[in-house]
Amino acid sequence: MGMFETLVGSRVPQKYRKYFDLPERRDSQKFTNTADTVLGTAAQAWLAANAGPCGVYRLQLGVDALCLRIGLIEKAERSIDIQSYLIRDDLSGNLIALRLIEAANRGVRVRLLMDDALTEPIDSGLLSLNDHVNIEVRVFNPFPRRRSRLISFIANFNILNRRMHNKSFTVDNQVTIVGGRNLADEYYQTSVKMEFLDEDIAAIGPVVDDVSTGFDEYWNTKEAIPINVFDKYLPHQALNETIEAGQRHLERHRDSPVIRGLNEHLVRDLVDGVLPWVSANAELVLDHPDKVRGLVRRQIGEVTGRLIQMVSSATEEVIVVSPYFVPQREGVDFFGALVKKGVRVVILTNSLASTNHSSVHAVYARYRKPLLRHGVELYELRPIEDGSVVGDVDPARLTLHSKVAVVDRQSVFVGSFNLDPRSLYINTELGMVVESGKIATEMASSGLESLQTVAYRLQLNRRGRLGWHYNSGGDSLVARTEPDTSLWRRILTRLMGLLPIEEQM
Fold first, then answer.
1. Catalytic one among 210, 287, 408, 420?
2. Active site residue: 30, 222, 291, 403, which one?
3. Are 433 and 310 a contacting pair, CB within 8 Å?
């Protein structure tokens, strides 16, 4: 075992301490005395006037998801708890970081919990944020050698391969946002290269406290290490330098539609009591943080178990949206059994042309024909161009990133979970199950209608050959190879499909 055997025991042992002077870490908990805040007052007023334990609001558009996050930060009075797999030094990341600093200046406690897989480019920025008396940053399952991460990863693969993929954003323990979005441009219609189609759910009511309790569980686990542990090993920029760099970044984009159009209409509607919340039962579904310890191979987490239960209950229709879809033989049989009992099963994932992970597509491709033979309706997103722009640049290419399941148009799952072995067995995940016919019907209807224009429908001809059916210019067309891709990319993807990588996808 490597130096990171440290994190699988009941305490942090000396083997870990020899690499870092680990300070005594202080546990902290959610604030519960927040009903008198602006957000608390608004949430409680709406809940008192409406039936149902919770209010939920679908955040389909990236710009809305960003605006609500910014607006909530600006209304925060007591606490902001953010859990994320990724944050970038880009327009969206800097917008959020600067607003967090402003909130901390007002006395708001900010806790930022990041998975450590992709923090290397922003280590110094995270360290500077942590310098603020009201901001604490922790990294989950960190790399012990900050300047030689590849060596750390190879030496400690069984531990460092397991990541915290959760995303939650909770303010004053009164309003929360969960879903698939990280803190980066491609999730909020601010990227010039790529736009992720994604989903979040904002919520008020008892489920918010559940999200906060789950955040505390991760925040206080042994795998969550204070970022200042790494201070002596990294360049440490001052907080004012981080602020100035962020302001310069925003200034370069001052004419962008995002900056010009950034407004608080969603949070203003929330505070004014006119945001169209939908009354619903909402349930947090959360993997336990010790899933990353991997003590039992192929042990499913809480999210996987709840999803299996939810989908298995279907009697009429299941719609699954997963950008990285590797069902394996068990999944093929599972969906086939649903079809056999009369359930319509519709699955949407990325095409080779739209995916940002060709290796995942290479493994997924093995299961297309078996799924189709079972009667599953299989769709792949076309690499169409969206109209979103930053300044005077070309539109961004769309890539699917939503993680959604809709069952019988009555219940919906939205979260961080991809239907692949990595989400099932390796990474920790988080999501929300919403029992609402209104939300479920809206998502199902709009999704199925859009498939005809944004996706290829895969079908087998009488000879068992795969075809990609789509409409273009009013004509119905069929492609016999991966459409909108080069021969070279198809060859490379086919070669990747021969590698023994399925369990890591």
1. 408
2. 403
3. yes
Tell me, yes or no, whether 246 and 334 share the same domain.
Answer: no
Cα–Cα separations (whole angstroms), residue 267 to 91, 273, 381: 21, 10, 32
Question: Is residue 33 in a domain?
Answer: no
Residue 212 contacts residue 113 (beta carbons within 8 Å): no
436 and 469: one domain? Answer: yes
pTM for this one? 0.93
Phi, psi (rounded to 5 degrees) for 17: -65, -25
Task: With a cut of 50, list the residues of the chain below it in pLDDT.
Answer: 1-13, 15, 386-394
Does residue 15 lie in a domain region?
no
304 with 404, same domain: the answer is yes
Query: Are 84 and 49 members of one domain?
Result: yes
Domain containing residue 467: 287-504
Nearest CA to 71 among 267, 276, 271, 272?
A: 267
Report how far apart, in Å, the C-alpha atoms of 187 and of each of 92, 211, 346, 354 are. 9, 22, 24, 15
User: Given 30, 81, 115, 167, which residue is catalytic?
Assistant: 167
Polymer length in residues for the chain: 505
- 167 in catalytic set: yes
Catalytic residue among 30, 64, 116, 165: 165
CATH number for 46: 3.30.870.10
Position 204 scores a pLDDT of: 98
Is residue 146 a contact partner of residue 116, using CB atoms and an 8 Å limit?
Answer: no
The confidence score (pLDDT) of residue 158 equals: 78
**Residue 137 bridge partners (DSSP):** 112
The structure tokens listed for 406 are 């809709």
The predicted structure's pLDDT at residue 12 = 43
Asked if residue 425 lies in contact with residue 300, where contact means CB atoms within 8 angstroms, the answer is yes
Active-site option among 116, 172, 210, 287: 172
266 φ/ψ sector (left φ>0, alpha ψ -120 to 50, else beta) = alpha
| Predicted local confidence at residue 1, as pLDDT | 34
Residue 165 annotated as catalytic:
yes
Query: Which residues have C-beta within 8 Å of that of residue 217, sequence separation ≥ 6?
Result: 286, 288, 289
CA distance 321 to 400: 9
